[in-house]
Structures are given as structure tokens and as C-alpha cells.
Amino acid sequence: MKSDSSFKILLTLIISLILIITVLAISCSIYNPNLVEEVKKNGDLGRIGWIPIDSPKTPAKNITIQRINWIKYFENPEKYDIDLLIVGDSFSDVGNLPDYLATYNDMQVLAVRQHAINGNKTFTPFNLLIAMDNGGIIDKINPKIILLEQVEREEYDRTNEINFNSNISMDEFETAIRKSENKLSTINNPIMEMDKNTDSHEIIDDINMFQYFVPPSSQLRQNDPINEKIKKTINFSSESFNTVKYISLSQIWLILTGHSYNQISDFLKYSTYKLKLSEPLFTSPKDNNTLYFLSDDLLYLNYIDDTIWINHLNSHLNTLSNRFAKKNISFYYLSAPDKFDFYFSCIEDNTYPKNPYYEQMDGLCHSYHYINAKEILNKRLSDKERDIYWLGDTHWSWMSTEYLSSQISPINYSIHVSD
After folding, report:
1. Of 97, 169, 177, 196, which has the highest C-beta tally within 10 A?
2. In this structure, are residues 373 and 336 in contact, taking their beta carbons and an 8 Å threshold?
């Protein structure tokens, strides 16, 4: 009898919770017609977790030399004498890193993200660089310096996927770049529009993300004015309803678990975690001492006792460096710190173990130029600098990439380099 009573209480609570969320979603859909617009302005952590995060961003400043546009380069490659080629993931681009490196080093810079190439072929940054070399693209560009960047949380998996037989032809590469650039220039998405504070290259990922967030259009007949009006109304209601539903769930999940509600889909396998910092390190008036970070930042903690893969990564980087040295190309490697790892020492009542990645990498012998971005940016953290990373985003801010670029300028940066 007691178990039956407990079950009824639990069932009542669940039904009550569903009713509360449903009523709240319907009410907000009616009384807050701008809710969808507010959510889409969130950084990626806010959008992934359905958490309204007040994360003010400011436009980049002090850029006097911009990266070379790929389309212009394809049209007349002989016109350019490329000093630096950057290959990486989103951290190599968000924050205007190529432009700041061009500005601080007075260089001609080309930069490519793995996302711009991934279509029929899927590359990690490491494999993309290998593929470009195997396909003769590096020889054609003939840069003086190559900078490979990868975000810390992806390095374990990407190291296990390194393939020195990766290959992409110049025609395939150019086709993929043109398709990516065309996609950027023809964006017309009601859920994500560019503004002055949004990095254009981040939009591609955002559009793909919102395809999961927003339900498909009503299956009404096309080109019928009445049906189009009905369809617009239905879409608006469903967007607003789902937005508030997931916001409500995530707020409950944050209280109960410390992370946002996780939808069940292939893409939305991530959650947004929330921890308190010991001091205000963001400019947000609401959450200046709150750390939001991606669930994947904690994955490496499962491998803290595994140093074999780091030795493999370092060995592969040394191999690449020796390969490029034969072509008189200097090779640099930049690991972008996870947000959680970067702010680890500032987390209040932290119960998580420390990520030893950078200490382990520092202790290895590098024949390449190893840039310890965490060590460099920690100087700003020690000065209580705010917005080193954006509050509602996984990425570092333009202030960080500007400072990072100034510290490795000129780019014959040689700290942590072994002969």
C-alpha cells in the first residue's frame, strides 16, 4: 500500500510539472511575442541549454589588416605572397584571430576552418592540414608559416583519428570553400541573423543548430495567401511554445542537476553547465560571477591518468613539423583552452579534479613551435580581466585573441620549443 501511495504522489508531481510547463509556455507565447528573438541572441551555451544568458558582446577593435579572402585568392593566387596559413576549428576564427595575427605581424594571412571543408569528406583540423599537404595545396600556397589550432576538449578523440593518408585535391578544396562562402553570403534564416557583434563564420554552425531547435513548417499548400498566413501563425506559436518549454525544463534541470535540460537527438548531446566563481570575471550585470561551460569540457577528466595519447599527439606534431621543415615552412601548434579548464582555479567550492593537459604538454620535447595559450591568457586572468571568454559562449572573446596575437608578435615565438 505504501509503494502504491508513493507511486501516486510521484505521478501527481510529474503530471503537475508537465501542466505547469505547458501553461507557462502558452502564457509566455501569448504575452511575450519577442521571446524567440531574445533566445536567438544568446551565445552558443545559451542556445544549447535553452538558458537566457545576459552576455553582452562588443565589436572587435584595432584590426588594421584583415585576412586574405579565399575567393580573391583563388581568382589571382600569384598576387599574394602568403606569410601565414591557419588551419583549425572554430577557435581559430571566432574572435578574429587571423585578423589580429595579420595586424600585429603585418602579414598576409589565409585561414581555413574544418567546418568550411566538411561536406562529402569529414576532416578534423589535423587531418585537414595533412590532406591539404598530400593534395599539393600547401605547395601551391607556399606559406612561410603554418599554424594548426585545435580546442582542448576535442584533442583526445582527434588524436585517435589522425590519418596521414588524408587527401583533398585543390579542386575539391576550392569547391568546398566557395560553397561555404556562398552559404555565408546568402544566409536568410528567420532564427539566426547576423548583427555587428556576431562572427559571420559562427553563423553556419548556428543555422545547423537551430534546425534541431525549431519544428518544421506546417505541411500546408504552398503559394496560397491564406494558407501562408495560417502557416506563419502556426510556426510562430510552435516556436514560442517550444522555446519556453525548453527554457522551463532547463531552469528546473539547472536547480536539480547543475546543468541544462538535454534534448534527445544526435546533435543536442551537449548540456550547459553552471558553476559559481569566487569573483566577477564577466561584464554581465546579472551573472558576472557565473561560469557557463559546455558539458564536453568535462570529458577529458575521464582520461587524466592517460598520458599515452598526449605522447602520440606530440609525436604526430613533431612528424608534421619535420615534414614542413623540408619545405622551409615553420610549424606552430596552438591548443585553445576549454572554458572550464581555463577558469578552473576561480571556481568556488570546486569538487572537480584538475585537468593536467597543459602541464603534460609542457613537459614534452617539441620540434615545433608550441603556443601555450592558457599560460599566455592566464596573465590577463591574474589581472582580473573580464570577458576573456564570453559569458554565454564556449569561445574566447576578441580581447583574448588580440592579446594573444600581441604576445606572439612577431610570430617567431619560440617559448616551449626544443631543438
Report:
1. 97
2. yes
